Amino acid sequence: MDKYIIVGLGVFGRSLAKNLIQKGTEVIVIDKEMDLVEEVRDIVTYAVCMDSTDEKALDALGLRDVDVGIVCIGEDFEANLLTSVLLKHKGVKKVISRASDPLHIKIFKAVGIHQIVTPGVEAAEKLAYSLVHKSLLDISYISETTAAAKISVPPSFAGKTLGKLNLRARFGINVVAIHRMIETVGKDGPVLQEKVISNIPGADTVIDASDILVVIGETDNLDKVMKSL
Amino acid sequence: MDKYIIVGLGVFGRSLAKNLIQKGTEVIVIDKEMDLVEEVRDIVTYAVCMDSTDEKALDALGLRDVDVGIVCIGEDFEANLLTSVLLKHKGVKKVISRASDPLHIKIFKAVGIHQIVTPGVEAAEKLAYSLVHKSLLDISYISETTAAAKISVPPSFAGKTLGKLNLRARFGINVVAIHRMIETVGKDGPVLQEKVISNIPGADTVIDASDILVVIGETDNLDKVMKSL
Hints:
The structure is a homodimer.
Chain A: E1 3-7, H1 11-22, E2 26-31, H2 34-40, E3 46-49, H3 55-59, E4 68-71, H4 77-89, E5 94-98, H5 102-110, E6 115-117, H6 119-132, E7 136-141, E8 146-152, H7 162-165, H8 167-171, E9 173-186, E10 189-199, E11 212-218, H9 219-228
Parallel strand pairs in A: 1-2, 1-4, 2-3, 4-5, 5-6
Antiparallel strand pairs in A: 7-8, 8-11, 9-10, 9-11
């Protein structure tokens, strides 16, 4: 298993540390706030309270054994950049940095950071998209231009087969799954539960008015569908 | 178009404001840091520097007209909770709050917050998953248990048809798209470009060793596939 070092224990860094530990990996964490270090000390392999931009302190950690370093410092870009470059120069095999705007991404790329993550930016895009498209229940980007979306069924689709609706030819999107709310009886009475009734449904599958469709397509085409609903 | 109010101009709040404005909506932003307010003043409908937990100051904004309030305050949970509850009581029709851990989610639900977003937590889950599964290039969750993943083709798949590989029966996953790297000649010589060669490929589609497969399935099944690669 790979060895990881995580710098910065904000929400993103803490969650990442917990997730990696759960998957059975070795995780060293660094933060300059003692409170944050104490909070995760018992669950990680090794927790250090230090300034990650201090080159000598970093040397003492023996970074040559570390496979992946993830710099999760959020608002202080200078500290993030300095730490990222130091990890790279000290021999960490892969350095991933958290960026918050397009200029930071350009700078990270210019100094040779291997991978850049933008948690806040991505989540904001997704939320804005789902807020303005009311029939959209959720959207996940598969690439910059392709996405999977969960949409509620528009009234005009109800009772028709996928073959008749012909969404692929009309909108360039594919229905890859149908979720249906099913009423089941639990110990406290009937409960509504979402159930996948079909993965990759066929042309003869009939859509129900209360179904949720999982569709895949280019975001432009998804936009068109949602505007027409 | 709906009217939005965004409280907290960190990375997530700023990105959200920009995205909503781009989609042609009316956006009011609030932060207690003047620098952050100034940064977005020219692009939003109305920018206010104030403490969002100050009930009288909030009253002066006329919140009854606002359709959606999104509280993006990151690390200060108390300020986030107070603001969220105030927006709800002042007549904002839908209140969305940013949460950073499971306990916060429970509290937001208990006070009747309509929607909860967890940008850092979701991004961390996704990154941890892709770090431990090397053949996984990207993953997008469609629901809690279903995801779309981009995976590189394992050597054993190359040259075979999808029909022969029979991934649906063997692993319970469906290949919904195939991306292939294509070499094109630009003005500076040959460039590798990713191109979608097939959406919903058929049983007779032959997989190339350098293809990228977009697959959909339950996360447990995706785990199994990736472990077997």
